[in-house]
Hints:
Layout: H1 3-14, H2 30-36, E1 46-53, E2 59-61, E3 69-72, H3 73-86, E4 90-95, H4 115-126, E5 131-136, E6 149-151, E7 154-156, H5 157-174, E8 178-181, H6 188-198, E9 205-212, H7 219-224, H8 246-257, E10 262-266, H9 272-282, E11 286-290, H10 292-303, H11 309-323, E12 327-330, H12 333-343
Parallel strand pairs: 1-3, 1-4, 1-12, 4-5, 5-8, 8-9, 9-10, 10-11, 11-12
Antiparallel strand pairs: 2-3, 6-7
Bound molecules: ligand PBG.
Residues 135, 137, 139, 147, 182-183, 218, 221-222, 235, 291-292 line the site of ligand PBG.
Amino acid sequence: RPLAVETARESARAEGLKITQRPRRNRKAEWSRRLVREHTLTVDDLIWPLFVIEGERRREPIASMPGVERLSVDEIVREAERAARLGIPAVSFFPYTEKALRDPTGSEALNRNNLVCQAVRAVKRAVPEIGVMTDVALDPYTSHGHDGILEDGAILNDETVALLVEQSLIQAEAGTDIIAPSDMMDGRVGAIRAGLDKAGFRDVQIMAYAAKYASAFYGPFRDAIGTQAALVGDKRTYQMDPGNGAEALREVALDLDEGADSVMVKPGLPYLDIIRRVKDAFGVPTFAYQVSGEYAMIEAAARNGWLDGDRAMVESLLAFKRAGADGVLTYYAPRVAERLRANA
Ligand code: PBG
């Protein structure tokens, strides 16, 4: 051994540091770490987003989201049953709409028998105890890939909101439990709440994508629903500027005022500061969306052997709890639920 190390050991043994605070004492064993742990991730925190395609017994891999597949409605039902067995409280559906069904106003969104409505009905019939959430926005159905009606290069706000109200009613009729407007039009939560109440859907919840940023991290999702290639321009005239924080609080305040039951911050990991600020300012049920790009980054590194995928998955999800989130939408939901169960 080098001499310096010997000397250091000797003097440490002889006197040590004169400190009374030794935070490491609490970390010395697993039992103690468990006792002092401030935040935990449980299966109760999870919402599982699933992609729906046409057909039967069909499972189609998504290249940019390894481990995630598009599923036909019968397969969605099997996965919802699995989610219920694992104790996952809720699932959420996103459709891959055939090109031929897409048009400039997203009229397939208003088809009572579209893929999302089929999935909602089938899952509510087969697994009534699981919560079902559906996205309200036009982008899976529009030929230009935008969340609203596009006219002369601009997204029309109020005209779009009128369609979103119709879309919400159709999803509510199909039996959805939570309407999740992800479009970022102004005034849509209030309009949807009024529409739902008028039609007698007083108990259908609204989880507002309140602080949704114009983000590069949605790339793989747009692959998954087939809008990546179609998207004309970007979504920066309605989704938020990544440079803004206070504006997120304003968006949340408006959505709560308009009747949102819970709010969401999206993406997740790059916006943990926003989750914390929202939770502190409003104290309402606050959710994070660990979006497709976040999932893809972890999976890409894990599949290259660059990090431990399971540990990165759990650590990233726990971070949302620490930041103040009550729950997380995550493509990892079944995998992390299985892991939590195995370690329980
Ligand atoms: C559509 C919508 C998007 C996501 C959820 N709903 C994409 C977008 O706004 O372009 C992204 C989810 C993800 O990336 O996992 N309104």
